[in-house]
Design goal:
There is one protein chain. By secondary structure, the chain is mostly beta strands. It has one domain: Jelly Rolls. The chain has no helices and 13 strands. The strands form 3 sheets. Strands 5, 7, 8, 10, 12 and 13 form a 6-stranded mixed sheet that branches. A hairpin with a 2-residue loop joins strand 2 and strand 3. It is globular, with a radius of gyration of 15 Å. It starts with 5 loop residues before the first strand and ends with a strand. The relative contact order is 0.30.
Length: 153
């Protein structure tokens, strides 16, 4: 497990009407502070990544479809520097994945339908000076062959 990454498996409450699951609560240890909430939709066959943030922590939960979220620890002072983490998240494997700043990340849609990744970052997106730094999928510094020749940014 990459240093600083946390996983919270989500408990599903079901009855004859349907189901409910809590994603993130302000009274649990995983919660830091609220920045904003958004959904990133990805089409089958596409990858959204690589990128990282210098300040922002992300809290990912795939609420529709399935996604493979991949992390790369680029922090030279980390005990897990250079490690890759892969997490298949989706409707049948509900979880929150907490991603620290400076950990490079991206995700791909698995299956035949769009996936919807909900994020609750601890920072508000600044359109004039975004805390987002993109890296090409085929960058040689990231040892992840699966995405080297894929469609995405």
């Amino acid at each position: 497990m990459i240093e600083g990454v946390e996983i919270k498996k989500l408990e599903i409450h079901e009855d004859e009407r349907g189901s409910l699951f809590e994603i993130l609560r302000s009274d649990e240890p995983m919660f830091m502070k609220f920045g904003q909430v958004y959904i990133s939709k990805c089409k089958p066959g596409w990858v959204k990544g690589w990128h990282y943030h210098k300040k922002q922590w992300d809290h990912f939960c795939v609420i529709k479809g399935r996604a493979l979220v991949v992390l790369f620890d680029s922090r030279r002072d980390s005990k897990t520097f250079g490690e890759i983490g892969e997490y298949e998240i989706g409707e049948n494997n509900l979880m929150v994945l907490k991603v620290p700043p400076l950990v490079v990340h991206g995700f791909e849609c698995l299956g035949e339908e769009n996936c919807w990744l909900l994020n609750v970052p601890d920072q508000v997106y600044n359109r004039e000076l975004p805390d987002e730094y993109r890296i090409p999928l085929n960058d040689p510094s990231i040892p992840y062959a699966r995405w080297k020749a894929r469609k995405g940014w």
